[in-house]
Design brief:
- By secondary structure, the chain is an alpha/beta fold.
- The chain folds into two domains: 285 residues, Mur-like, catalytic domain (UDP-N-acetylmuramoyl-L-alanine:D-glutamate ligase, 3-Layer(aba) Sandwich); 132 residues, Protein-Tyrosine Phosphatase, Chain A (Alpha-Beta Complex).
- The protein contains 15 helices and 17 strands.
- Strands 4-3-2-5-1-6-7-8 form an eight-stranded mixed beta sheet, with helices on both faces. A six-stranded mixed beta sheet has the order 12-13-17-14-15-16, sandwiched between helices.
- The protein is globular.
Length: 429
């Protein structure tokens, strides 16, 4: 099997319709697949991360801190921005096409052996666990795909279980209350897990305590971000953990929310080692964090930014960073596409505060038509609204009309951010 064949195999498993397992919340299938491969998910310690927003950033910070400590780190995230290889990384480097094809071929063989037809996400997750065991990483950092309890990643037994925050999302699978979401995310907590909770709502914190982990550390009580200041190219942070205060730590990510994610990540790594980290390790780890697609600045004159926020709380944070930290002098130009209620998303992005809106269809089978996104923008009060069939066309039009003083933000979905990342670079003046 080559890389193209591996992608074709995954495409054949790309929906519950194709696997015949609609409305079947269970980890039984991936557990069977992994058992046939010798349970590679247990080959090394795991830090498991869930939450409504901030999972990806927190996973990257944890991975970089562990790497700065000298460990070989496997990192599993989803979805990818441009290439599926991004989901599986060893010390920050994506899996090669050849290695990826080899792992997917192994999953295809196990499918025949066991008779279990995995979903797309189960197949990639099982491939990740197998690859991490093959390349002998010291520790894996695993991001939950959705919610937690029935997520395919939840066949791991995490030494540290991390919850970034809780907001309403994926309510078609859990809800309608925040407490329902919290209970599903609490499912990643195992009896021996140390639990790091970035959520401060006491009712939700209690749900995580009641799940039965070995110990629970909570933001504000046990760790926190003491200072979270805007700096050139990111944030300057003072971070308190149960053992130490780390001062003047530079994090090259935009937005105050990333400072909060940093305190969660640092608490998780200290808890894993059951000891404070050397200050130079903390500085090196945070300084090397990169997050493509998360408020990523691609260029200046005009300023071009992409952000993969996919739900209203994330979109609200995106807008706050754009208007608060950057506050451009020229026209504000929004490229927006989404997979969910367009009225909620354009409102959260504060589309009515932009001078121009380019609505487009997100490149996904679930993408809301650009005409519907444009209609939502007009209902919000946007005057200059254009409709495009693709993200590529929207980016080309936005750059064509932009002056050097203007600012362009492409947002609304990780799929929009990924497509805009290549298009904005390709059409940049």
């Amino acid at each position: 099997m080559d890389f193209a064949a591996a992608l074709a195999y995954l495409d054949e498993h790309a929906s519950y319709d194709k696997t015949g397992r609609i409305d079947d919340p269970s980890t039984d299938s991936i557990a069977t697949l992994c058992s046939a491969m010798g349970d590679p998910q247990h080959a090394q310690p795991v830090i498991h991360v869930t939450g409504t927003n901030g999972k990806g950033s927190t996973v990257q910070m944890i991975s970089r801190l562990l790497m700065a400590q000298g460990l070989t780190v496997g990192t599993y995230t989803s979805p990818h921005l441009e290439r599926i290889n991004e989901r599986l990384k060893r010390n920050g480097d994506p899996i090669s096409d050849e290695e990826f094809a080899e792992q997917i071929a192994a999953i295809a063989a196990v499918e025949i052996l066991t008779g279990v037809r995995p979903t797309y996400f189960e197949a990639v997750t099982a491939a990740a666990f197998r690859w991490f065991a093959d390349v002998a990483v010291d520790i894996t950092v695993v991001e939950v795909g959705m919610l937690g309890r029935w997520d395919a990643t939840n066949i791991v037994d995490a030494q540290v279980a991390v919850v970034t925050n809780i907001a309403l999302d994926h309510t078609e699978f859990a809800g309608p209350e925040l407490t329902d979401i919290a209970r599903e995310k609490a499912g990643i907590i195992k009896p021996d897990s140390a639990v790091i909770v970035g959520q401060i709502d006491p009712d939700l914190v209690q749900i995580f305590r009641e799940e039965g982990g070995a110990a629970t550390l909570v933001s504000g009580d046990d760790f926190e971000t003491l200072d979270n200041s805007l700096a050139i190219g990111g944030r300057s942070l003072d971070l308190r953990t149960p053992t130490t205060i780390y001062s003047d730590i530079f994090l090259p990510l935009h937005g105050a929310h990333q400072g909060e994610n940093a305190s969660v990540a640092l608490a998780a790594v200290e808890t894993f080692f059951a000891a404070p980290l050397a200050e130079d390790v903390v500085r090196e780890g945070f300084a090397n964090v990169t997050m493509p697609g998360r408020f990523e600045v691609l260029g200046v004159q005009p300023l071009t930014i992409i952000d993969g926020a996919h739900n209203p709380p994330g979109a609200d944070v995106c807008a706050s960073v754009f208007f608060g930290d950057f506050d451009p002098d020229g026209r504000r130009i929004l490229i927006v596409g989404t997979l969910r209620d367009p009225d909620e998303m354009v409102a959260a992005l504060r589309a009515d505060e932009f001078d121009v809106v380019h609505a487009c269809t997100a490149p996904s089978p679930r993408g809301v038509p650009g005409t519907d996104v444009a209609g939502a923008a007009r209902r919000l009060g946007c005057d200059e609204v254009y409709v495009h069939d693709s993200v590529d066309a929207a980016c080309r039009a936005a750059l064509r009309s932009a002056d050097a003083e203007d600012a362009i933000l492409a947002a609304g979905s990780i799929y929009v951010a990924g497509a805009a990342r290549s298009a904005l670079r390709r059409y940049a003046p």
